[in-house]
Amino acid sequence: MDIAVNTRFLLPGDHLEGIGRFTFETLKRMVAAHPEHTFHFLFDRAFDSRYLFGPNVVPHVLFPPARHPFLWVAWFEGAVAWWLRRHRPAVFFSPDGYTTLATRVPRVTVMHDLAFEHFPEHMSVLEHKYYQHFAPRFARASEQLIAVSAATKQDIVQSYGVPGATIQVVYNAADAHFRPLPAAVQQATRERFAAGKPYFLFVGALHPRKNLVNLLKAFDEFKQQTNADVKLLVVGRTAWKAGPMFDAYQQMQYRHDVHLTGRVSEEELVQLYAAALATVYVPYFEGFGIPIIEAQSCASPVVTADRSSMPEVAGGAALLVDPFSPAAISGALVRIWQEPELRQELVEKGLQNIQRFSWDKSAEALWEAIISVSNLKNVKP
């Protein structure tokens, strides 16, 4: 069987985030598990050879590079549709929420979130118009739709009227290298990144939906209430519309206790999770929230938001707070600082919770979806 795959989020370089990580981990496993089938990887630019996971992967570069709404249309409705007509694969699998409407090849599409429906102010007008027009059509045109959480599934049902029975939930997972570390490594990490002091940790790209403005306000309140010698480490790249976060940082009373590290290596990230007093991840909205289970895998207590997918992913093993309330976030930080028994309880529950998530199980579920769609009908592109 020939399977076409949209792999444009497998970008060259050392860092894969969110959708790119989901694509990498699940495809790597599917390719290895099914050598009798041929996977045609469709890239929109020169690719890294490390993404050719086996001899049954055939790479194709289709132009133009699709990183703008006009180019999204040109790539999916033009280049991809043309390739599908020419090669006639059994299935087109797209793990990044986009697909093409200009084909009769059965489509399996993974939707990670509908943040653009709820927070249009976080993107350009042109991007929002693209999503408004195409996203509901992508959802309805896909023979099998995948959501990365039950919360995202319900959002798709409510927003687009897609029957829930046609949407399968396939979770993300934490990579195997996220694990607890010895006390000596934790202390060395604190020495390196936080002058030897305990610290709260945020991990994620710096953009409005991650709610860093309220996190910074909450940390200031925490310091005012406790006068604790505790730092806040903010780990991640600067993404779009991060200006208000930097403004809030400049206005902080305790900004000298906040360290913006930028990106770190995977090894350093594991160390930072494992040595943290707690991981504080309180976005307004998430389709899944991978930092929650990465932190739990490293035996870090977690504070997260009480909405969208985050309670589902945290699995009763985190403190849940109103992300719009700096006072609520600050209150959780105070509890983490003052209640060591609570920290230990969250660690133990977190280590139990992560057993629900596995890239192997996710890859197997995606493969079953691909097989079921490929058998639906005789494809005539």
Automatic annotation (TrEMBL):
InterPro entries: Glyco_trans_1, Glyco_trans_4-like_N. The keyword S-adenosyl-L-methionine does not apply. It holds the Pfam family Glyco_transf_4. Keywords: Transferase. Residues 192-350 form the Glycosyl transferase family domain. Gene3D superfamilies: Glycogen Phosphorylase B. Coiled coil: none annotated. Residues 18-176 form the Glycosyltransferase subfamily 4-like N-terminal domain. This is Glycosyltransferase family 4 protein. It comes from the Bacteria. The lineage of its organism: Bacteria, Pseudomonadati, Bacteroidota, Cytophagia, Cytophagales.
